[in-house]
Design a protein that fits this description.
- This protein is of the alpha+beta class and 179 residues long.
- It contains 5 helices and 6 strands, in the order H-E-E-E-E-H-E-E-H-H-H.
- Helix 2 (69-82) packs antiparallel against helix 3 (112-139).
- The termini are far apart.
């Protein structure tokens, strides 16, 4: 078996966290204090005989009939595009939004370092995302949306080697000087 609920509980013990162990559901439920989220619950599940680990924060928002639901969806997708690790989920039956991180362990044991990275990433990225989503739900505008020029520049930076970027910058400067 790749990992067990007991090993995850031990990692939480090492952090000095309180939690509820639900062996029947093969999960641990804990919570964290947050400025952005009233009740920031975290569910940790060991699945597939210890070969898969899932952490999620349920009931972050409810968007079933919200006027800015479409903009909120666009924002969640944009955040998923911009940030690695975090995934947003939506339950159409009741409008629940939650965030999650998962790790396929297969036959490898879960290390404490891996677990702490997943847990910390879930907390930090969820808080950042919820702050942004609260603004969207209040105004209908995504404050994190980058202008198209910034998006193109970021994409080029990812695609091109440094010397090609320098040549492109020089060419753009030349064109501006010509005007």
């Amino acid at each position: 078996m790749a990992t067990t609920l007991a090993s995850v509980a031990e990692f939480l013990d090492n952090r000095g966290w309180r939690y509820h162990l639900n062996e029947a559901q093969n999960q641990i439920i804990t919570d964290v204090e947050s400025q952005q989220i009233d009740r920031f619950l975290i569910v940790i599940q060991v699945q597939e005989n210890g070969e898969y680990l899932a952490l999620f924060a349920p009931q972050l928002l409810f968007l079933k009939d919200h006027i800015y639901k479409g903009v909120a969806f666009q924002t969640m997708l944009a955040i998923a595009w911009e940030k690695k690790l975090l995934r947003w989920e939506y339950d159409p039956s009741d409008g629940e939004v939650r965030s999650s991180v998962d790790l396929a362990l297969e036959d490898a044991p879960l290390s404490e370092k891996q677990f702490n990275r997943l847990l910390s990433g879930l907390i930090q990225l969820t808080e950042e995302g919820i702050e942004r989503l609260k603004t969207v739900l209040a105004t209908g505008n995504d404050p994190g949306r980058q202008p198209i020029a910034a998006q193109i520049a970021a994409a080029l930076q990812d695609m091109l080697p440094a010397e090609a970027l320098a040549e492109l910058q020089a060419e753009l400067q030349y064109l501006q000087d010509e005007e």
